[in-house]
Amino acid sequence: MTERPVMNFEPDVAAKAAALADFATYMNPQKVRVLKAAGLDIIEAQRDGVWVWDLDGRRFLDCFTSAGSFNVGRRNPRIVKAAHDALDRLDNGNFLLCSAQKAALAKRLGEISPPGLTCTTFGTGGGEAIDFALKLARGATSRAKIVSSVNGYHGHTGFALSAAGRESFRTPFEPLMGGFERVPYGDLPAMEACVDTDTAAVILEPVQGEGGIVVPPADYLAGVRAACDRVGALLILDEIQTGLGRTGKWFASEHFGVVPDIMTIAKSLGGSLVPISATIYTEDLREFLIPNPFIHLSTFGGSDLACAIALEVIDYIDETGLIEHAALMGRRLVTGLHEVAAAHSDVIAEVRNLGLMTGLKYTEDGLGPRMSYQLARHGVLAIYSGNEPSVMRLMPPLIITESEIDFLLEAIEAAVKDLVAGTGFDEAITSDRAKRRPQRAAGVPG
Ligand SMILES: Cc1ncc(COP(=O)(O)O)c(C=O)c1O
Questions:
Q1: 238 lines ligand 1 (CB under 6 A)
Q2: Dist CA 427 CA 29 (whole Å)
Q3: Cis ω before 175 (30° cut-off from 0)
Q4: Local confidence band at 441 (pLDDT 50, 70, 90 cut-offs)
Q5: Burial tier of 94 (Cβ tally within 10 Å: 0-12, 13-18, 19+)
Q6: Of 180, 211, 246, 424, which one has the fewest beta carbons inside 10 Å?
Q7: What share of the chain is helix, strand, coil (3-state, %, to 5)?
Q8: Residue range 207-235: average pLDDT?
Q9: If you measure from the C-alpha of residue 421 to the centroid of ligand 1, how many angstroms do you get, rounded to a whole number?
Q10: What is the model's pLDDT at position 366?
């Protein structure tokens, strides 16, 4: 599907060092240290399909993709062309007015979304989409309680952070919003015990991303749906990582035969070029917005430019058969990973997978950053899960080809062998101090 691109820039080691130094001085020195320790102190230069080049000239197969943001590949030529065309005639647009681009995208989202989800409110990023989903749930039900999951991840904005499943993200900012409770993910009895007539909504990822690519038991989401229905609570499914073909269906909920009341998408909707998110919900819930159509506003949410690009993203996914391709490539990847895992059970404990949403669970937490380091040496950009460092996320662009999957499998095999042999680690990672560093401090969310 893609031709392997060639490097089109002059590597510049000094410019890279300067960018890292400025990032440390003017932004976040600890981020630079943590990434360096994991061999990920990369300054992205050329971005092309499934590939990205560090400014120092090294090429990586991008398996992080900004936590699943580049489903159509990086700078996909068709999406770039649509962006150029949009720039020639549009700008962000006036958020308070009606817009042809917003209307067209909302209509298209209604066509591809699970049945009954026909109404959309746009945002700029995932957190904003979650915030609106939770506001809508509270507003429409006149109830306060929200149930989310341990290790769940929904972003760092106000409502989204209150639902976060990781305590260390929440505690420095408490008191956050009240009325939020968390239950273990995949545990239906715990969910059933928690959801009651005070519950406005349950919010879950259909597959936990940051939690370590956790695919729930087959009947879990249907059970949660039933628990919600029994008490009149709403089900919000956060498809921000799982949506738009990632799992081999348009939306992961389709694997489980479950239709939520509200669904959120973001990340890949912008085609790797622009920020845009969407909260998609039923016409019934829209009633809440009728008395005050200005109750939720976002200046840049669903800008006209972003909507034009997102429309092309959806057409591209649809017209190229990208979803079926993702399912096929996912099967090839997972077959190969099982072989690697069987040969290296001392390092890989489990392969987790749905479509091209794949996780490698290592036998211990500390292997997350160490394997990122080794994979980077072998030309693969892959980052361990923010809330579960023992799980490596492998979420390449869906346009990945068979030969690129094979490249990835060979790189993983070589990385595991070097890890076991202790080859290639420099002082940063082998020093006792680095080994003792608490894993939570090295969590890389996204
Ligand atoms: C499942 C999920 N929900 C929400 C978010 C938040 O999205 P954003 O970073 O665009 O606010 C993310 C980001 O990684 C995510 O993975």
A1: yes
A2: 19
A3: yes
A4: very low
A5: exposed
A6: 424
A7: 45, 15, 40
A8: 98
A9: 36
A10: 84
Ligand 1: does its nearest atom lie under 6 Å from the Cβ of 131? no
Which of 153, 159, 204, 263 for mutating ligand 1's site (highest number of atoms within 8 Å of CB)?
153
Q: Is the CB of 205 under 6 A from ligand 1?
A: yes
pLDDT in tens, 102-145: 999 999 999 999 999 999 999 999 999 999 999 999 999 999 99
Token pair, residue 350, equals: 């489990």
Q: Is the CB of 209 under 6 A from ligand 1?
A: yes
Per-residue pLDDT at 319 exceeds 90: yes
Q: Whose CA is nearest to atom 4 of ligand 1?
A: 154
Q: What was the pLDDT predicted at 445?
A: 58
Whether 240 lines ligand 1, by a CB cut-off of 6 Å, is yes
CATH number of 77-319, picked from 3.30.450.20, 3.40.190.100, 3.40.640.10, 3.40.50.2000: 3.40.640.10
**Residue 260, preceding peptide bond in cis (omega within 30° of 0):** no
Give the model's pLDDT for residue 224: 99
Grade residue 84 by pLDDT with cuts at 50, 70 and 90.
very high
